[in-house]
Amino acid sequence: MAPMHVLSIGGSRHSGYWSAVRLLEQGSTVSFLLRRPSVFDEDPVIQKFVRSGAARLIKGDAKKEEDMAHAWEQAGIVDAVIFSVGGAPEWSLTKGLIIDPNLVAGCMLCVLRSMPIYDNAQPPKFVAISTTGLGPVAHKALPTLIKPLYSALATPHYDKIGMEQVLAYCAGRPLDPSHGEPRVEVLGENWTQRLPPPGTLKHRVLVVRPALLTNGKCMADELEVKGKGKGKAPYRASAEELHAYTISRKDVAHFVVNALGRWDEFEGKYAVNVGY
């Protein structure tokens, strides 16, 4: 794959982080939007690329449109955006368990509302990390043992659905009817206002829906090291629903980077499920 310039949003950890590391190691440059750039102060891998100029750290919050506009300006023309925003519930002594109902969708709205129009380049490719099990059809395809867990994730799942609805709108695709109508508590009233016109991101979006994520090894790399890969990854990737339990975050990153390098194979699928 030819080197790319990538804007990483949510790349301080997990699949977004490992995707960025893979790209950097392959000669690409990555601009990270980070609420706390200090998160990489003790990371020797990222610091090596910061010193070489391949990794750029931009301070800002993707849920603030002015910060996102600054990030686009600092990054310059980018070939691809890897969007892997996600959040964990927080505990408050006064309010109990707190879950931001529109962290992911709200960030995606800001990303797209502030996205510049390039004079001499196409809009960037967007790879967005979502999840399997969204909506009744996808939930039904889940393995029985993990269905209760996914049922307990209703609020973050509605948030992911909102993100997918925003991307579908900008890609000029019909909204998935199994996801229901866009929720006001997730996308707000008149959520399509100031978004790029439908079709702006036609063939420029790939939604990746991983199975239950783990912190395991990159099995794809393991096979390649042993000379057993032969072009076949240990995970499955399909536009159809998968009956899959898990996949490691590192293997998701392997898929993301490979998909960017083989975009013609995935651009017409829009959304792909990945799992073992």
Automatic annotation (TrEMBL):
Protein name per the record: NAD(P)-binding domain-containing protein
The terms under GO molecular function for this entry are: biliverdin reductase [NAD(P)H] activity; riboflavin reductase (NADPH) activity
Q: Which InterPro entries match?
A: NAD(P)-bd_dom_sf, Polyketide_Oxido-like
Name the species this protein comes from. Answer: Mycena alexandri
Spell out where the chain crosses the membrane. none
| UniProt family annotation | Belongs to the avfA family.
